[in-house]
Amino acid sequence: KEIVVSGIRSTGFLHLGNYFGAIRNYIRMQEDFNCYFFVADWHSLTTHPDPKDLRGNVLRVLAENIASGLDPEKVALYAQSDIPEIAELYLLLNMLAYKGELEKVPTFKDKVRLSPQNVNAGLLTYPVLMSADIMIQRAVKVPVGKDQEQHLEMTRNYAQRFNNRYGYLFPEPVAFNFGDNLVRIPSLDGSGKMSKSENEMATLYLADEDDMIRKKIMKAKTDSGPAAPDAPRPESIVNLFQLMSLVSAPDTLQFFETAYDNQSIRYGDMKKQLAEDMVNFIAPIRNKARDLQQNPGYLNRIMRDGAAKARENAAQTLQQARKLIGINYY
Ligand code: TYM
């Protein structure tokens, strides 16, 4: 079985972007691949979260993954910080990562722009740690959303540099999505992608209550209707149709597509329908995640078992990496 790795930062409530960019792929891959899925709690430390929040944040991400359909019997589910081998590989990979290259990464430049008062080295070397997460398991496929594409390119660079210098150890992993293209779920306000923090009213969380889901969708940006039969669709409308294609029945989607084409569409009706379909999609995940969080003992057990499995494979990789580099003295 091919090895698959992916992670989600424990920085807030999971949203529809996390689901359709990442988790949906996890679920589809869990049968046929050897899967390692983790909560990236070290990565969450770049913004110095309150220590008393960490445990709850990690358990919630875990619960939301399981509630979405991940089966802990089939995949290893763990916390990144339970795998010290990742930290050692990260140190080793830092010697192959160049400062200039890291400074050019768009996600880093965004962070510098948004919080210039906290440009720490952890932020700069974020892609190196992410590469270590992936390479420690010698993964070949990494299910992620579009925003992670560039990070994967860097991972391939580090794998290549290591292999060229020390001998072959690491496959070159690719960002993966079922279907051709990596997914990018747009924000409801028509500006950019859906994200954990930026604008809560424009983000649909897997933990949102039914009325909140309805409220957010009814407020989503639209325009005044198709200007001409073959005018290009404005981005906000493309976005609504994209969301509908993910959670509504095919004939519902078709109905509104046709209505759009013959200019009889009423966005209010479309949003009402989308809201109901979204409620039906999110509510069971939300309720299951809530139940799971009532049982931290169960979640802890899953995390421990997952970590044991992940460490076993990680230790083998690390041992070989040390040996190839020459750190094998005894
Ligand atoms: P994070 O925590 O920001 O997001 C988790 C996953 O959700 C995807 N995603 C989206 N996909 C589509 N549309 C969106 N609007 C959207 N928003 C988020 C992300 O692409 C990601 O797949 N660096 C990673 C975490 C990480 C990781 C790794 C991933 C750490 N180590 C190793 C894979 C392998 C991150 O910040 O994801």
From TrEMBL:
A Pfam family annotated for this UniProt entry: tRNA-synt_1b
Keyword Ligase recorded: yes
Subcellular location: Cytoplasm
This protein's UniProt keywords: Aminoacyl-tRNA synthetase, ATP-binding, Cytoplasm, Ligase, Nucleotide-binding, Protein biosynthesis
EC number: 6.1.1.2
CDD domains per the UniProt record, alphabetical: TrpRS_core (cd00806)
Source species, domain of life: Bacteria
Gene3D superfamilies: HUPs, Tyrosyl-Transfer RNA Synthetase
Reactions it catalyzes: tRNA(Trp) + L-tryptophan + ATP = L-tryptophyl-tRNA(Trp) + AMP + diphosphate + H(+)
Function (record text): Catalyzes the attachment of tryptophan to tRNA(Trp).
Subunit structure, interactors included: Homodimer.
Family: Belongs to the class-I aminoacyl-tRNA synthetase family.
Name of the featured protein: Tryptophan--tRNA ligase
Organism: Chitinophaga defluvii
